[in-house]
Amino acid sequence: MTATRAKLGAASVVVIMACGSGSGVRAGIQQQFQGSWVADSFECRDVFITKAGKTLFRSKHDNTLPGFVVEGSRIRGKTASCSLISIKQTSNGYVAALNCKSQIMFGAMSVSLRLKDQDTIERYDPSFPEMRETYHRCVD
């Protein structure tokens, strides 16, 4: 997985957290998407552990980001974190401008996604619709 794809994986939920035009709507959506999420091909128990009430990544995975954790208005992956700069709704979903950083890189980027249902997010590239990644929420 490339560094950009890793950042994109970690960034997906930030988009969802900020959807809506008013602060009340935004806060409601942000609350709805708190928690841990994994890529479609992974199981939550294989990616995360909980210690002292905090969700952590299992150490057996390398630096790829099969999942991410939403905590408040920030998200974190195993090696990257992002914060939302802005968001807008499009005809196909949402696009967000994000500020992301890892241990060796930082920068702004945009991410496109669709809400499939309350527990499923699809990240996609509008220029290449066949390129997409699906994430599912982990339920304790």
From TrEMBL:
Organism, as annotated: Hansschlegelia quercus
Protein name, per record: Uncharacterized protein
